[in-house]
Amino acid sequence: MDKYLDQFVKASPGVKFGGLAAVIILMTAANYFLLIEPTETQIEAQLGERRTLDLELAEKSEIAQNLNERRREMDVLEQKLAEALTELPEKKDVEELLAQINDIGKKSGLEISLVQPDREYVGGGEFFARIPIRMTVSGNYHEIAMFLQEMANMRRIVNVNNINLGQPTLKNEKVVLQSSFLATTFRFVETQKN
C-alpha cells in the first residue's frame, strides 16, 4: 500500500485529480448502492404500507361512524317499540288494565257495577288479539262522558262500542243513568311464519 501511495504522490497533477475523482466516484456509487438505494426502497415500501393503513383506517372510521349512527337509530327504534308495546302490549295484562279503568271510574265519580272480561280472540292473519270487557256503570251523563274520554286518553288502546244509556233515576237531586258498553282492548300477537 505504501508503494501505491508513493507512486500517487510522484504522479502528475492530472493523474492525481483523475485518481481522486475515481475514488470519489467509487465511494459515491458504493454509498448510493449500499446506503441510499436500500433506504429509498424501504421508504417506498413504508409509504405503500402507510397508504394501505390509511385506507383501512378510513374504512374502519366510516364503519365506526356508521356503527354509532346505527346504534342511535337502534336506540330510537327500541324506544318507539317500548312506546308501541304500551299501546299494544304483548301480554294480556287485563288485571292492570282493570285497575286503571277502576281508578278512572272513581276519579270520574262513577259507580262501577259490572266489569266482566270475555275470552280474547284473534282474527285470521291479524297481528293482534281482541280482549272484550263488558262493563256497566252508574253516574250522571257528564260523569259517564268524562269516564269515556279518560279511557280514550289511556296509553293502551281501548275502544268502546255498543254504548247504552238507560234507566234514569233521581238520586240526591241528580239524574243518574245506568250505562252498559263493551270496552275492547288489544294485545300484540306474534304471527307464525311459514
List the helices and strands and how they pair.
Layout (H helix, E strand, L loop, with lengths): L1 H9 L2 H75 L6 H15 L2 E7 L3 E2 L5 E12 L1 H12 L5 E14 L2 E15 L6
Antiparallel strand pairs: 1-3, 2-3, 3-5, 4-5
Helix pairs in contact: 3-4
Can you tell me about this structure?
The longest helix is centred in the N-terminal third of the chain and has 75 residues. The protein is an alpha+beta fold and 194 residues long. It has two domains: 88 residues; 98 residues, Ribosomal protein S6/Translation elongation factor EF1B (Alpha-Beta Plaits). It starts with a helix and ends in a 6-residue tail after the last strand. The protein is built from four helices and five strands; from the N terminus they run H-H-H-E-E-E-H-E-E. This is Pilus assembly protein PilO.
Question: Nutshell version of this structure?
Answer:
The chain is an alpha+beta fold. The chain has helices at about 1-10, 15-85, 95-110, 140-150, and strands spanning about 110-115, 120, 130-140, 160-170, 175-190. The protein is built from 4 helices and 5 strands.
